[in-house]
Amino acid sequence: MAVIGIVEDNKKIRDLIQRYLDMQDGMECPVAVDSVEEMLDHLEKHERPEVILMDIQLPGMSGIKGMGIIKSKYPEIEIMMLTVYHDSHKIFDSLKAGASGYLLKHTSLPEIKESIENLLKGGAPMSPQIARKVISHFNEEAPKKNEESMLTNREQDIVNGLVDGLSYKLIADRYDISIDTVRAHIRNIYKKLHVNSKAEVIAKSLRGEI
Amino acid sequence: MKTLFNFITLFLVCSFQLAEAQQYPFRTFSIEQGLSESVVYDMVQDEDGYIWLGTGYGLNKFDGIRFQTYFESDGLNSSRIRALHKSSDGKIWIGSEGGVNFFTSDSIYTLSVLDPLQNTTVTEIMQDDVGNIWFGTDGSGVWQFDSNQFLTQYSTSNGLVGNRVRTIEEAPNGEIWIGTRSGITVLKDGNFVNYTEANGLNDQHIRDIEITSNGDVWIGTRNGLIRFREDSFELFTTKDGLVNNLIQTLTITPEGDLWVGTESGASFYNGETFQNFTVRSGLSTEIIQSSMLDNEENIWLGTYGGGVNLFLGDYFANYSTTQGLPNNLVTSFTEDADGTTWIATFGGGITALENGEFQDHGVNSALPDNQIYTLFTDSKQRTWVGMGDGLAIIQDNSVKVFSEQEFPYPRVRNIMEASNGTYWISTYDDGIIRYDGSQFEQISSEDGLISNRVLISVEGDDGSIWIGTYGGVTRYMDGEFQSFAIQEGLPNNAVMNLEKDQQGRIWASTFGGLAWFDGLRFQSITRNDGLPDDVCYFIHQTEDGLFWIGTTNGVVRFNAEKYFNSDNGNAVEAFQVLSTEQGLIANELNLGAVYEDSEGMLWFGTVEGFSRFNPNSYGGNPVSPKVHITGINASGREYQAGNPFTLSHEENYLEIRFAGINFTAPNQILYEYQLSGIDPGWQQTTNRSVKYPSLPPGEYTFKVHARNVNGAWSEDVEEVKFSITAPFWMQWWFLGVVLIVLVGIIYLFYNYYRVRKMIDIERMRVRIASDLHDDVGASLTEIALQSDFLQATDTNPELNKTLQQIGKQSRKIVSSLDDIVWSIDARNDTLGDLTDRMQDYILNTLEQKDMVVSYDFDDLDMDNKLPVSVKENVYLIFKEAVNNIAKYSNGDRVDIKMKNNSGRFEFVISDNGTTGKGTKKTGHGLRNMDMRAQRIGANITIDTENGFSIKVEGKLNAN
Fold first, then answer.
1. Which residue in B839, B849, B895 has the most chain A C-beta atoms within 10 A of its own C-beta, making it the best mutation to test that interface?
2. Domain shared by A101 and A186, yes or no
3. What is the CATH T-level fold of the domain B828-959, as seen in this structure?
4. Are strands B939-943 and B949-955 parallel, antiparallel or unpaired?
5. Residue of B777, B786, B855 lying closest to A16 (CB–CB)
């Protein structure tokens, strides 16, 4: 049974998603709160969800900041951003903060369910916009020569494929790998993005910039 | 014996010269005046009027006052100048001991073709009628320089009579006469014809040849003057009156008269007699080396050691103690019964001028005083002598002195004989004395005379006696006195002379100008009216109606007719000055010292002797001066006239120099000048320069012309143009820059506010869009999610379909809002952002349709920024197109291509379907696309023939 949590300040949307996910087989959504603070409170005291759907604009702490805190405390929790904006800059910021994917709020409920399933299967969505940002992000990081956080050749190939607008299926076909492998790679890319960002944050904090 | 003979000759010559012992007005210019050396070998006048003098050391250019000198350092082959000539093109050719140069437009030039002459002494240069220039040399014959620039030498080997050439002259018939030290060669029709002593030439040592317009050839030799006429030679020597036989130079006047310069003075031959000029007559030195007539017909005599002598004419003959005058203070003249002129001096008694000699016939010893004021010869041919000490009468060489008892009035200043036979004797301090032949009767201030200091009296036509005193004028008639002073129009009460003119008008000359009596009062003529000097010692009218007025600055020749008939502006031309410039012995005349003799000669007494003036031979100087602007000095820097020039605003202290070339009276040139914008009209000056301190910036034209003493204006008005630039803070470009900066600042302010306003509007747009998106979007999302939720719970297919529609529609609106927010968000402004968005959209719309989407963004610069409007409209066109494809296409492939180069973009989206023919052309979506393309000024081509294809072309930076 996949446990899903929701942080969303719009009560109606939150309730609808919660109720819908609760109705699904193999999914339960015991926690749906309207702020990061409440979620953190919940996480300390209750069973932790595997996946949290997180709004960005929230009362109190922002979703992006909250996600960073949650990821640092509970790295095993996958967080998907739930955003009203199709805004690649905001989305990319959240990915760097540790998000494994993102959902637009108007995404239909079945699609939300599907995305969660995909995520749990190990995949993560990545649009060409995000892929382009990923490339430039890693290119900027390149001079740091941190081998661990650099993209592998295959990951590079996949990102390039995404930039070209290829679907996961086409990428899988092009490199003769399965769609799941593509998803896994993408997920890994997200992780590296997060690691990179953490390294950056540490570096920045060491330098006293934060 | 020979010595004795020489002595006698010398004595004879001297006595002959004594008989001519007056000084003529020669003006000498030599080293003291700036001439480079005192030996003048040749002279020529150029077209600008300057006189060039070649000396033993240096070439001189003379403007009448100043010499400009040229030497080897200025480009001359040699500074030892021997010959000068002006060619028809105005060049001055210079022959020297080092060959030939020429001078034109301010520079000295050398011609390489004339190099063969470099080591010879060029003694003569002459241009013939056809343009050949002939060079005579001292030892290498003559050289012909023709118009084709060929130089040909002729020497004794070619038949020339001698190689030491002294002169070359062209006859009116074209013959070239070459005078040498060994005879004459005439080049006639290409043949040399030689004349030597062997064929009748009196002397072979030729110095100069001049040929008159009627063909007479005058030949100056070392043994006299020869005239060649009708194939025969005629010799003139001292026996004929020539001053000396050692002739050096000849010059022919336009009248055909001849000037002969010799080693002992000059002679002027008028065809009958020789008039001789020596040092005693005013020459600076005996040896005349060269001669020339200038365009004013003055003769210039270049001497050996004495510079140059300019002879102004023999209209003035001057006498002073040098010529034997007993005293230089000459007060009066008279002519006795024998026609002898007597001269009264103040301190030297009286003397008679007879045949050029002064003698008193013993009268001075009989006179009680040698301080003579006046002489007067009455109708009985008795000569009255007015002295400081009384009165005497000379008759037939016997002197009768009036005793103090008979005539107790000293200081007799004038004696006048009235028409009724009475004599009127003016005395200083004792009034006027009337003498009827037996009795002296004193008339003084007690009787009604205005002053007892009487200087002069004249008789009016009506028999009235006009008495000039130091207190004014008294008219005495029939026992009645009527007096005139300043109140009655006299310019000054000190009257020195009276004159009755031909119309019977009484004129008075005073210390303050002239006056004439109009019947009621006196009318004055003073300096303000153009009279050159206010101190008028005498006034005298000659038969031609002209008045002669003695002043402290020469004698004024006054044309009263011209004066009365002219406007005030031209009155100045009624006055002409005769001063030392014209040959007057001195400029300060004496009171009443004027006399007109029976031959019409005027005698003027001065403080330095007297001048005898022949008004009939004095033609004045009709030649107008040539005026030149000689230089401009601007705050220390020299500029030349000619081309316009520009000065900076700091160089605004200007001195402009000019010169009117006139040699007769260079110091009496009157200039009129005007600087446009500064001088309101013509300004007059006799100075040769004018200064303008601190001229303001601007364009200027300076004009000047000159008038000689006789009123002849220069033909041309010389002018020079120049401009003074404004300082940079007054220049247009600076003002322009200031203006531009001001406009720029205003524009920046304006722009700043405009941009800020635009930014504000933009922010508002984004905020409104975001708020709409957030609030409306959230509500719509709720609706969509509600419908999703209901679909998941309710299984009624009819309702499901409706719910699906609600959800779809809601999401579509949210998506549209999202697009709007995206497109106006300034962060998403690159082509990369646009293509990312496009790909996202494709993913969301076409992925499910199993269509292969191929992107061709290879030539795209992803970092190229896009204006919001282009981004928005291209994206929305794209979206519409993709929607069309998604909706209607039956193909399986979509090609999306985008290119950008040189500021333009091209966007193509097409599918490989076959549907879509015709029908959708006018559909709402297509019209929308059209409209959007128009908004960004792009061309859109929609092709529905083979599948669906849209091509958009436009400017990247449209807006």
1. B839
2. no
3. Heat Shock Protein 90 (3.30.565)
4. antiparallel
5. B786
